[in-house]
Amino acid sequence: MRKQLIIMLCYVAVIFLSVLIFPGVEFRSLSAIVGMGILLWLVNLIIKPLLLLITLPLNIITFGLMSLFVNTWTIRIADRLAKGFSYPNFGTAFVTALILMAVHLVLIDNKESVLMKKLS
Known about the structure:
This protein is mainly α. The chain has seven helices and two strands.
């Protein structure tokens, strides 16, 4: 449970970072950013495994590169579902997916990270 909370907070932080980096990202309030992060967490928890299963043959052929596009699609799905928040184009969502993958790799998937050591 604590790990899922940390993952959700990382998603909120990445969404907030994308708002700071990309001038075209529109949001109404800070609660819209938090809502988008929570919604992205839910989409990644529920829909992403199905997308990864559907794209498994392409993911094998491209040696995992397809998972980056799956992450981009999950961001676009959450963007469409969120109220008061929008990404201007696919490229912005793609770079946000890159940032999200890097944060996930360094902070969550890495067993040597300080964050995961404290949760263990």
